[in-house]
Amino acid sequence: MSFVAAQILNGIATGMLYALMGLGLSLVTGILNIPNFAHGALFAIGAYLLATVAVAIGNFWIALLIAPVGVALLGLAIEYAGIRRLYAAGHDYQLLFTFGLALILSESIILIWGPIGSSYLPPAILRGGADLGFTMYPKYRLFVMMAAGVLVFATWLFLEKTRYGAIMRAGIENKEMVSLLGIDIQKLFTVAFGLGAWLAGIAGALTAPIRGLNPGMGPDMLGIAFVVVALGGLGNLLGAIAAGLIIGVAQALVAAYWTEASTVVIYAVMAVILLVRPQGLFGIR
Amino acid sequence: MSRSSRRHILKAGGAMAVLGFPAIVRAQAKEIVILGLWDQTGAFADVGPINDRGMRMALEERGMMILGRPVKYITRDGATQAGTSTRRVEEAVDGDGAKFVVGPWSSGVALAVSEVAKRKKVVHLFSGGTEDISGARCHRYSFQWAASPYTAAKTVVDSFMEANPKAKRWHLLVADYAFGWSVEKYIKEVGKAHGLEFVGADRHPLGEREFSNYVQKAAANRPDAVAMINFGGDAVSGAREMFNFGLTPKVPLIMTWSSGVEELVQLSPEIRQNVWVGSNFYYTADTPGAKAFVKNYQAKFGNPPGYAPSAAYSMTRLLLAGFDKAGSAEVQDVVKALEGIEINDIVGPMRMDAATHQNIRPYFFMRCKQKGAMKHETDFADIISTGDAPLPKEYAACKDIGGF
Prior knowledge:
The complex is a heterodimer.
Chain A lengths: L1 H31 L6 H19 L2 H22 L9 H23 L15 E3 L4 E3 H23 L1 H11 L1 H6 L4 H27 L5 H16 L4 H21 L6 H13 L9
Chain B lengths: L2 H28 L1 E6 L10 H14 L3 E2 L2 E8 L5 H15 L3 E3 L4 H14 L2 E4 L15 E3 L4 H15 L5 E7 L2 H15 L4 E8 L7 H9 L4 E5 L3 H12 L8 E6 L2 H4 L10 E5 L8 H14 L5 H20 L4 H8 L3 E4 L2 E5 L6 E2 L2 E6 L12 E7 L17
Parallel strand pairs in B: 1-3, 1-4, 4-5, 5-6, 7-8, 7-9, 9-10, 10-11
Antiparallel strand pairs in B: 2-3, 11-15, 12-13, 13-14, 15-16
Helix pairs in contact in B: 2-11, 3-4, 5-6, 11-12
């Protein structure tokens, strides 16, 4: 029993990271109405920035603040210099743009940091395991689970309980209406893209000590983020959180009894749920 | 254009046809076209470029000449996919006249390429962990450079148990494809002689990145040792998670079939504590061939070579030795020359078994160094033993290598 509990705990920890990724992607997808293929690359850049800054200044915590901000700035620049210019051209062009951008960013990672991966260890205070009674569990993973939980909750609070969050949700539902109410929809798009990039960046930064750094880490995570968004319902933020947790726990439980299927279960769960609810768990369209 | 100038052009064209084309045909016939099938995209995209380095170095050592004829080295991206790889090989054979193929890097893909080699009757050299190329699916045209999975398993288990005689409870973490299954089978077989108990054996998909679930399961089994039979990114992710969960350095981790340098450089010294590594090559191998190769490689690229460039280098040298022995560049002559050939190369003495096309050669077993004991940044490990026990006849699945 303690083994199953340990697997569920691990599933929740992994699921919180998936939720964080899914939340950012869902926000951007909902607002812009296009899947952002560069979301995985932004995640990877967050991880690389964390390790680079942490090594340079010798402080993990400050690096954890700086790295996602760097990714958010990159996101703002991408929206301002690229995607904004393509709104009039239509979704196909925006789609192609983010796809091309993903390739450019992935190759840039190789040019800047090299093709060979590396490891970055958690800060000394979070190394090793904590005895939870039923299992020994890495302290850093416990920290990530809590940090991701707080971030997910804070993002949800911002979107649900603040005026700007309400405008953003309205933008997801009906852009024309928001625009007609005199709200600068361009600015809304820019902020949403920046926030989405920040979420990808912090997910990457938190993941670096767990999964290390390698140029392929972005595409690896992007696939799961898309599953989370589709499962939760396009543009549905609560759905993304629930879907992230479901995928994480399903993966952990399947790995406990049938390890060969631990990757395929991600897609199997998505297929089954979408067959029953094509609009996703909480989606309405 | 006037009638006379058109006639001039036609005359000139005719002269070209008579003089020029045969010259081109002669030049093409003289060239020996060798294909390096190295992935530039897909799961082994990071390995292809360094495979290419090794192969190119071996050809350049000979001044891109063999038997007094120029070598035309062509490379194609197999994309780490069977469909793409087989198509690219067929194109190179039919369109470029390639009769000699080296690669690819993935066992599963190589099995498909081996079938093309058989059908197109071209020489194929491969290095990888599947036992099928020199086993159940053996034929006259494909040769396996890497040690047999049996040789690897025997070297690893015997050497590890000699150093850790009490570590009898093993948990295995196995990549779920041809290579993983082959090595797992022999680890279990060889383990019987040491009285090993396998308390768990979990298989994971190729390209797995979330190892926490597997490691937690391994920890629950309370093993004396964990042995991973996986490669590249999978091995790096697995080793990192073992450390994160506090299993290593308390419990020794064995990387059974490692790329060596390319994997170890991705792990920090803390993660490498109490890690034991089996590999087809390690750059401190005490052989004259390895010393010269490592020196040249480091001078050229700055870092020591791991298994990938070394395998490509040695496979190419093996092929060139086949040309020398045959005194011919005809496929069947080279195949006959490679069968039973003995050369002393970077790994030490090698002999290509004529009956199975399996290279009989040493396999290396290393122990990673403590951070304080490292003399320089890439001083990852010490070679503690080598082993070259060939696959016993009772296990050999290649009963008849067949004809041409």
